[in-house]
Amino acid sequence: MKLPDNIPTHPLSSHHAKLHRETSSTSQFGYHQLTESKRLNGFEIYSTEGMIPDYGPAKSDFYRIGIVIKGILHMQLGLEHFEVTSNTLNFSIPGQIHAKSNVSEDVFGYYILFEEAFIESLIPHNNLRTQFPFYNYEGHQVFQCDPIEISEITSLLLKIDRELEEMTTDRNMAIKMYLYLILLTAKRSYERQDLGNNLRVHDTNVHLVTQFYKLVGKHFLSLRQVTDYANMLHVTPNHLNRVVKSVTNQTASDAISNMLAQEAKVLLRSTALSAAEIAYRLDFSEPAAFSRFFKKITGLTPLVYRRQETTIRIAGSDQSSASFEQ
To answer: Which positions ≥6 away from 88 have C-beta within 8 Å?
Structure first.
C-alpha cells in the first residue's frame, strides 16, 4: 500500500485562527486581540474565552497544549475519545487527526499552539517527542494533574501573556523558557503518576485495544490490514479482532475504516479537491469505491458531507459577524 502524499495540514496563520476563534469575542488574553507587531513566529496562546466550541476533524502541522481548569469537553485524537474534565492537560501532535465537541457552557482554560522550530534553541530538533512522552503516539495524551501542578502551569501561562504585552528585553527567550517549564511541569506530573508504566493497566483487553488504536492513528494511511497491526502487537489477527469486538462492539477492520473516514472528512472540509481526487489520494481503486466506502461509514456521500459542512461553517460565520456588529 503506497503512502498518500501531500495530505493537507493547517499551519499557524490568521486563516487557521478563524477556524477556532470567534471574531466577536472580546477576550484580552494572549493572541486573540494582540497586535501583529507583538506576535512571535511559530507560537500562539489563547484562553478558551472566544474559542469556537466545535472544531474538526482536522490536522495541523504544529504541537498543541490544552489545559482545562473547569468545565468539560469531548476530545477525539485519532480513534481515541476522551471526556476532558477540570484540571486536565491534553496534547496533540503534528499530523494527528483531532476534533473537539460538546463543550460545556462553564468551560474555562487555555491552549498553546507552537511549531517545533520555535523551541529548538531549548529542545534539539526531533527531540520533542522523545523527551516528552505525551507527544508520542504511544504515550498518554490526556491526563489529570493535581491542583498544585495546575496552579504552576497557570502561573506560567499568565507570565507568557504578560511578556507578550510588555515587549521587554529578551521576551522571545523568556516566552520559550516559560513554554519549556510548562512542558517540564507536565512531564513531572506524568512521571509522578507513573503513566508510562503499562503494567498499571489491569485490564489487558482494554490495554490491547488502546495500543491498537494508537497504532492505527499513526499508520492507517499506509497499513490497512488487521494482520499488519496484529503483527506489531504480537498477537494473531483473530485474537485482535475478538478483543476489539468484545471491548468496542466493532471489529478491528471497522476501526481502521473509521480512521480512514476521518482522514477523508479532513480532506473534504479543508481542501477543494474533488471526491475523485480524494479517492485516488487515499488509494481507492476508483471514485465509486470511495463513495460507497464513505457512505457506508457516515451515511452520506462525500459531496453531501462537503455541502453540509460548508453550510454549517457559513452559518457559524454569519452568526459570529452578526454578534460582533451588535
So the answer is: 67, 68, 142, 143, 144, 145
The rounded distance, in Å, linking the Cα atoms of 6 and 263 is 12
pLDDT digits 0-9 by tens, 61-79: 899 999 999 999 999 999 9
Q: How far apart are CA 150 and CA 144, in angstroms?
A: 9
The confidence score (pLDDT) of residue 161 equals 96
Based on DSSP, count helices (H) and strands (E) in the chain, helices before strands: 11, 9
- Cell of residue 103, nine digits: 463543550
pLDDT digits (tens, 9 = 90+) for 111-134: 999 999 999 999 988 899 889 999
The CATH-assigned architecture of domain 201-315 is: Orthogonal Bundle (1.10)
DSSP 235-265: S-HHHHHHHHHHHHSS-HHHHHHHHHHHHHH
List the beta bridge partners of residue 113.
Answer: 44, 64
CA distance 147 to 8: 38
The domain 14-198 is classified under which CATH number: 2.40.50.100, 2.60.120.280, 1.20.810.10, 1.10.10.10?
2.60.120.280
- Cα separation, 257 vs 224, in Å, equals 8
> Does the structure show a pLDDT above 70 at 310?
yes
Cα–Cα nearest to 279, from 306, 304, 260, 298: 260
Q: When comparing pLDDT for 226 and 15, which is higher?
A: 226
Per domain, the residue ranges of the chain are: 14-198, 201-315
Q: Are 212 and 197 in contact (CB under 8 A)?
A: no
Q: Give the Cα separation of 34 and 161 in Å (integer).
A: 10
